[in-house]
Backbone:
C-alpha cells in the first residue's frame, strides 16, 4: 500500500500532540489523523492548581479528548504504546492494535524522575495529572479532618505538615497554593490554621535554579513568606528516603527527618521510556537521551517523523519545557505536515518566548513579560489567568468562563466608591477585558472555524472578522 494512504499518527495528547491534531483538523488536512494517548482526558497542566482549589471545573481543565474535536478527520484512541518500529513505520499498542503511519508525531512528554530515592514512588504524591490533583485533594481533606479531631499534638502536627520535594516552578506554585488554600479548608473545620506547615525541600541553595522562571526568584521568595501561612524553605537538602509520613534527608552532612502526612513530589522529570528505546544513533540525542530535531522539528534520520515538547532537544540552546513552547511547536508541526501533504517543503520553526508566568498563591501571580518588566500581585494573576484561558482547547465553553471571571475580578474586586486608584485599576482591567476577549475570539476563529461560525453566525461576527482578515482563507460555514 502507498504510504500516502496511511494515517498521520500522533503519539501523546499533551500540548504538542493535542494542538497538532486540532490545527490539522481545522486546516482541512487531507490525510486521516490518529491521536493515541493512554489517558481519556487532556490535562491543562498550568491550571492544575486551580483545579485542585476548585477555582476551575473538570470540564475546563481536564476535558475528554472525544469532546475536543469537532471534525471527522481526527480519531482518538485510548491505548498504551508498546513499541515504535521506525524502519517499518509501525506502532504496536497494548490492545493488540497496530498502526502503519505515513507521518508520525512524537509528543510523548516526559516521565517522573525519582532519582532512585527509596520509597519516593510509593510514598510521595506527584502533581502532573488530573488524577494526581484529585488524589492530593482527597488526601489533604482527610488529613485536615483527622487533625481537627485528634488530641495528640504530635500526631496533629504531622497531619498538618505538607512537605514539597523540589523548588522548581511546580514546587513553588503548589507550595504557595497550599499555603493559602489549606488554612481556608481547616478554618471551616474549626481548626487553628496557624498550625499548618508547608515546607519546601530543595537540593540547591536557590529556588528556581536553572529554570526559565529564575528571573522571578526574588519575587517568589518574598511572596512565599507572605502567604496565609509562610512557606518554609529547607535548602541544600539531599532527600535520602521517604517513608509513610516521614521524609529522611541530609543537610550539611547531618541526617534529619521531617514528619509530614502529605509529601508532594515535584523534584524532576526524565525522558519518556519509549523515546529512550527508539533506534536512533547516540549522536542524534542529547545528554538526557532526548531526540535531536532539525529546525523543521523533523528527525534527521527519519524525516517523516516530527517531534516536539518535552521529549526533544533543539539546537545548542534547548527551549524551556513549558506550555507555550509545546503549543507553538504543535502549531508549527501541523503547518509543516499540511505543507508536505500539498507537495511543499516544511519550513523552519521559530518559537517566540513571550515571558513567564508563576502562580504564587490564591489570587496572586508574577508575570515576567519578555524579560523586560515584571507584574505581580492581583494584576499578575489577571494576566496569568487570562493568558491561559485563551489557550484552553474548549473555546465555546471557556470564552463564557473567561468573561465571567474577568468581570468578577475587575468589577467586584476593584470598583470601590471614592477611590481614584481603584478607578484607575478598573480602567486598566477594562482594557484587559477588551484585549483578552478580542484575542480570544481570533484564536477561536483560527483554530476552530467551523465551530466558531456555527456559534456566532446569528451575530454576523464571522463576517465582520473575515472582513478584518481578508488575506486569510475564509472558513466554510
Residues:
Amino acid at each position: 500500500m502507498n504510504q500516502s494512504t496511511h494515517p498521520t499518527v500522533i503519539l501523546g495528547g499533551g500540548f504538542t500532540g493535542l494542538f497538532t491534531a486540532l490545527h490539522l483538523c481545522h486546516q482541512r488536512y487531507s490525510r486521516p489523523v490518529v491521536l493515541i494517548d493512554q489517558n481519556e482526558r487532556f490535562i491543562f497542566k498550568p491550571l492544575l492548581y486551580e483545579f485542585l482549589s476548585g477555582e476551575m471545573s473538570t470540564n475546563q481543565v481536564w476535558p475528554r479528548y472525544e469532546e475536543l474535536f469537532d471534525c471527522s478527520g481526527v480519531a482518538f484512541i485510548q491505548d498504551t504504546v508498546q513499541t515504535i518500529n521506525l524502519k517499518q513505520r509501525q506502532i504496536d499498542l497494548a490492545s493488540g492494535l497496530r498502526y502503519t503511519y505515513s507521518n508520525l508525531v512524537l509528543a510523548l512528554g516526559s516521565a517522573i524522575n525519582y532519582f532512585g530515592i527509596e520509597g519516593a514512588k510509593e510514598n510521595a504524591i506527584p502533581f502532573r495529572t488530573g488524577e494526581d490533583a484529585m488524589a492530593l485533594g482527597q488526601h489533604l481533606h482527610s488529613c485536615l479532618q483527622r487533625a481537627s479531631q485528634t488530641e495528640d499534638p504530635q500526631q496533629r502536627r504531622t497531619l498538618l505538615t505538607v512537605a514539597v520535594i523540589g523548588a522548581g516552578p511546580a514546587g513553588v506554585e503548589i507550595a504557595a497554593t497550599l499555603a493559602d488554600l489549606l488554612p481556608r479548608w481547616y478554618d471551616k473545620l474549626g481548626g487553628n490554621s496557624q498550625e499548618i506547615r508547608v515546607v519546601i525541600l530543595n537540593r540547591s541553595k536557590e529556588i528556581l535554579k536553572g529554570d526559565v522562571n529564575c528571573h522571578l526568584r526574588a519575587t517568589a521568595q518574598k511572596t512565599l513568606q507572605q502567604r496565609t501561612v509562610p512557606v518554609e524553605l529547607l535548602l541544600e537538602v539531599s532527600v535520602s528516603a521517604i517513608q509513610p509520613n516521614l521524609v529522611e534527608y541530609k543537610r550539611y552532612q547531618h541526617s534529619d527527618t521531617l514528619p509530614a502526612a502529605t509529601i508532594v513530589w515535584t523534584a524532576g522529570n526524565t525522558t519518556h521510556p519509549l523515546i529512550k528505546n527508539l533506534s536512533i544513533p547516540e549522536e542524534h540525542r542529547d545528554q538526557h537521551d532526548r531526540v535531536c530535531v532539525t529546525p523543521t522539528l523533523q528527525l534527521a534520520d527519519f524525516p517523516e517523523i516530527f517531534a516536539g515538547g518535552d521529549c526533544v532537544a533543539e539546537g545548542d540552546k534547548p527551549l524551556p519545557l513549558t506550555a507555550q513552547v509545546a503549543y507553538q511547536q504543535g502549531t508549527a508541526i501541523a503547518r509543516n505536515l499540511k505543507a508536505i501533504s500539498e507537495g511543499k517543503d516544511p519550513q523552519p520553526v521559530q518559537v517566540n518566548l513571550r515571558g513567564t508566568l508563576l502562580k504564587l498563591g490564591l489570587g496572586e501571580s508574577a508575570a515576567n513579560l519578555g524579560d523586560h518588566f515584571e507584574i505581580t500581585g492581583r494584576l499578575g494573576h489577571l494576566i496569568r489567568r487570562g493568558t491561559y484561558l485563551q489557550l484552553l482547547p474548549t473555546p465555546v465553553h471557556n470564552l463564557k468562563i473567561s468573561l465571567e471571571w474577568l468581570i468578577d475580578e475587575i468589577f467586584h474586586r476593584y470598583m470601590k466608591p471614592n477611590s481614584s486608584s481603584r478607578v484607575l485599576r478598573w480602567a486598566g482591567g477594562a482594557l484587559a477585558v477588551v484585549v483578552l476577549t478580542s484575542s480570544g475570539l481570533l484564536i477561536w476563529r483560527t483554530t476552530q472555524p467551523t465551530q466558531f461560525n456555527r456559534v456566532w453566525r446569528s451575530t454576523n461576527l464571522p463576517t465582520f472578522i473575515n472582513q478584518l482578515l481578508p488575506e486569510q482563507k475564509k472558513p466554510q460555514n
